[in-house]
Write a structure and sequence with these properties.
The complex is a heterodimer of chains A (about 250) and B (about 150). Chain A contains eight helices and seven strands. Chain A has helices at about 10-20, 35-40, 65-70, 75-80, 100-110, 125-140, 205-215, 230-245, and strands at about 80-90, 115, 120-125, 150, 175-180, 185-190, 195-200. In chain A, strand 6 and strand 7 form a beta hairpin. Chain A is flat, with a radius of gyration of 20 Å. Chain B has about 150 residues and is α+β, with helices and mostly antiparallel strands. Chain B folds into two domains: about 1-105, Alpha-Beta Plaits; about 105-145, no CATH class. In chain B, about 25% of the residues lie in helices and about 25% in strands. Classes of the chains: A alpha+beta (about 250), B alpha+beta (about 150). The interface between A and B is medium-sized, with 12 and 17 residues.
């Protein structure tokens, strides 16, 4: 069995849960395909997928044994463009954080390229595959409407205090909390262009639920130092890497 | 000495307005600096708006993260003024806050001020010093509100 992450804490268990592709993540909300396309902002809903090369079937490619081993993605077969979705995860108990995202993306999403930065995380793949992955990322436990931001640009805010409604700071206010309904809606697409109709993302998760679901070690949640197993493995890796195979005896 | 209010959440324009209007009533506060993330123009972010303080319209260009207060007479920093500030904060900041006493606002003119203002620096009141960051135009960021003579 693959060893995804060490540790006995709930956080470690959650990290393993996201990384293990055999575990199906809980679906928390319903977002239509059309709304996902709108939030992504790469093409208008209903528009044909623009392509960068003719379909693979029409291309006269040289013989290569790898081609028979690896099945191309649907998007690659059709010659789609490579497009992206990027998330910002608040340090205040967001369900996932960039490094867990990257590890899990590589386990779960075929043919996708993940890029990790301290406060944001991008995934790039062919457009029609991206839409499929984005839908999964938005509908399941990966996403919380208040603590996760869909931000193609102007990503600043992951390390700031939350605002009075419990939303992560967003300079462009893409996700808005409606006090009367208690629901969060996306009013702009990921790069900040106004949407014709807001897309309802649902209720923010309760603090206690987030603390159960989070993959972030925090002193006011579960502290990393208290997870003895995880620390032990980390220290072992640190020593092995520092020694680099050097054995003075 | 200065007093800093550090709310546990970033404040909306409404809360900032209410809080500042109440703080204004406390005897002994000479200057107030509000610090936070700068916001883009109103058409992008509706939190960027004007707030009214003692009838004076002030352009709130930020989302308030901290409030710094310069106390007029150092002898006045006793428990009572902190208690007053605390009770006002409790009304406006139900999510929690910290209050720190220390030096948070620059009080002296510096070489950078000299480079920025040149000879005009001598004419600038020391009450204006330290209110904004060095790169900003003072006129865009500072508002002077007259105190009611009683």
């Amino acid at each position: 069995m693959a060893q995804f992450y060490p540790g006995t804490s709930k956080v470690a268990e959650n990290r393993r849960k996201f990384s293990n592709p055999e575990i199906e993540l809980e679906k928390l909300r319903e977002i239509s395909d059309e709304d996902v396309v709108q939030i992504l902002g790469h093409r208008a809903p209903g528009e044909e997928y623009p392509s960068v090369h003719p379909p693979l079937e029409e291309l006269d490619e040289p013989d290569d044994p790898i081609r028979s081993l690896v099945e191309p993605l649907d998007g690659a077969k059709a010659g789609d463009r490579v497009r992206y979705i990027q998330f910002t995860d608040s340090m205040y108990f967001a369900p996932v954080h960039p490094f867990v995202r990257s590890r899990s993306y590589l386990h779960r999403f075929r043919g996708a390229d993940a890029g990790t930065l301290s406060g944001r995380q991008i995934i790039e793949t062919r457009e029609r595959d991206l839409e499929k992955y984005a839908k999964e990322l938005l509908e399941t436990e990966w996403f919380d409407p208040a603590r996760t931001g869909i931000r193609g640009k102007t990503v600043h805010g992951h390390a700031l205090r939350l605002d009075e409604d419990g939303m992560m700071f967003d300079m462009l206010r893409r996700q808005m909390f409606d006090k009367s309904t208690g629901l969060v809606s996306s009013v702009k697409n990921q790069i900040g262009d106004e949407l014709d109709e807001p897309v309802v993302l649902g209720e923010p998760l309760e603090e206690s639920v987030l603390k159960e679901k989070t993959t972030i070690y925090r002193k006011d949640g579960e502290a990393y130092r208290d997870d003895k197993d995880a620390v032990e493995v980390l220290q072992r890796i640190h020593v092995l890497r520092s020694m680099g195979g050097y054995n003075p005896e | 000495m200065d007093i800093e209010i550090f709310p546990h959440r970033l404040l909306s324009a409404d809360t900032t307005e209410g809080l500042l209007n109440n703080l204004e009533g406390i005897e002994g506060i000479k200057r107030i600096v509000i610090q936070g993330q700068r916001l883009p123009p109103k058409d992008v972010n509706q939190e960027q708006r004007t707030i009214t303080l003692k009838g004076e319209e002030i352009d709130l260009q930020i989302q308030t993260g901290r409030i710094l207060m310069d106390i007029e007479d150092e002898g006045i920093i006793d428990e009572s003024i902190i208690e007053d500030i605390k009770s006002i904060c409790e009304d406006h900041l139900p999510f929690g806050f910290n209050i720190h006493v220390g030096t948070f606002i620059r009080k002296q003119k510096t070489v950078t001020d000299n480079l920025k203002y040149g000879k005009a620096l001598n004419k600038i009141s020391k009450d204006i010093v330290g209110l904004t960051d060095q790169n900003a135009q003072l006129s865009e960021r500072a508002t002077i509100i007259k105190r009611n003579k009683q």
